[in-house]
TrEMBL record:
Pfam families: NTP_transferase. One of its GO terms (biological process) is GDP-mannose biosynthetic process. The keyword Transferase applies. Residues 10-288 form the Nucleotidyl transferase domain. GO terms for molecular function: mannose-1-phosphate guanylyltransferase (GTP) activity. Keywords: Nucleotidyltransferase, Transferase. This is Mannose-1-phosphate guanylyltransferase.
Length: 363
């Protein structure tokens, strides 16, 4: 447990999860699925992780109106005023701005952790230590602190952070540059250089400095006082959001703030991280069985099959022969068989194509 009650976490759980289609669907995306059959969904696991670090009442959930009932069902311990359901899908900068306003209404001195809801953390004790050290850093520095992990493979599906000048504190460096989803050749160069870390999407900041950054770089995002009216209640805030949120830019916090701010830092972390947002990411993070296959909570018979990832619905059996390096994923009315390598862009393409040609019921 950290020493201050001013620490908060916002779990970002509004994404559609289309890179894990067809198991992740628009009406029931990946963060609400018990993907590995362990009894807890990815959202619940993320909540559990931060409940070890913070008081439960200091954890907030940002999601979409479409998923509000799923959040309530899966996290009944989270109070209604700690769930922010956006009226329209936007990227992370507007989401963070709203969460910031909500928390600062009750605690202007807040320190905030922003976390995706779909990560795998191998070492929870190291995670607790890294987050605790990060909170101490941002409490005494006007800075945004990103959490980086040394790459273990040249992964084109991830974002990368280049470390700059050492701060003299722990394993924290000034950020030199960000690069989003490089091609494989550049990813290999980044890995070999030892100067680049994977961008986990986790970041920390004290609320007053983060608000200053958002207002400086994204003045159109949640300037509640623009009209001269001070928003002081959650009811007023939610009314403001309903009316104004659709006008906000569809921009990520990385592009909107982090790449433009002078005071962005990266901590080298060692908690064993994987982004469970892509099939390839899931494959790389899982232990392999014979033939380097990853079989997720599924019934299969494999022969002469290697380097595949397989995920089926309960009650289905797959007999697979002769496949090397494929995704075999089935859910309800869709079966996907696709090369695993660099599949993130491919799966997105297929989802868009299916939506246009076959309709919403297949996405």
């Amino acid at each position: 447990m950290t020493t201050t009650q001013n620490n908060y976490c916002v779990i970002l759980a509004g994404g559609k999860g289309r890179r894990l289609w067809p198991c992740s669907r628009d009406k029931y995306p990946k963060q609400f699925i018990d993907f590995f059959g362990i009894g807890r969904t990815q959202l619940q696991q993320t909540f559990d992780r931060f409940a070890r670090i913070l008081p439960k009442e200091n954890i907030y959930i940002n999601t979409s109106c479409d998923y509000l009932n799923l959040v309530r069902e899966q996290l009944p311990e989270v109070a209604a005023d700690h769930i922010m359901a956006e009226p329209i899908h936007r990227n992370t900068a507007p989401s963070v701005a709203w969460a910031l306003h909500r928390i600062m209404m009750s605690d202007p001195k807040a320190n905030i952790i922003m976390s995706p809801s779909d990560h795998n953390i191998v070492n929870p004790d190291a995670f607790l230590e890294n987050i605790t050290d990060g909170l101490l850093f941002i409490e005494k520095n006007n800075a945004v602190l990103t959490m980086g992990v040394s790459p273990t493979r040249p992964e084109p599906g991830y974002g990368y952070i280049q470390k700059g000048v050492y701060t003299g504190e722990g394993d924290i460096y000034k950020v030199q540059a960000f690069t989003e989803k490089p091609d494989r050749e550049f990813a290999q160069m980044f890995m070999d250089s030892k100067e680049w870390y994977w961008n986990t999407g986790l970041f920390l900041a004290n609320a007053s400095y983060l608000r200053q950054c958002l207002y400086g770089f994204l003045p159109s995002v949640l300037r509640a006082g623009e009209s001269g009216e001070k928003i002081t209640t959650i009811e007023e805030e939610e009314e403001f959001i309903r009316e104004n949120f659709p006008r906000y830019p569809n921009i990520s916090l990385d592009h909107g703030v982090l790449e433009k701010s002078d005071n962005v830092y990266v901590m080298k972390c060692d908690f064993g991280w994987a982004d469970l947002g892509t099939w390839h990411g899931v494959y790389e993070s899982m232990s392999k069985r014979e033939g380097d296959n990853v079989v997720i909570d599924s019934d299969v018979i494999l022969e002469d099959a290697t380097n595949n990832i397989i995920k089926l619905s309960k009650g289905k059996l797959a007999v697979i022969n002769g496949l090397d390096g494929y995704i075999v994923a089935e859910k309800d009315n869709v079966l996907l068989i696709c090369k695993k390598e660099d599949s993130s862009a491919l799966v997105r393409k297929y989802v868009n194509e299916v939506q246009i040609k076959k309709g919403e019921e297949f996405v």
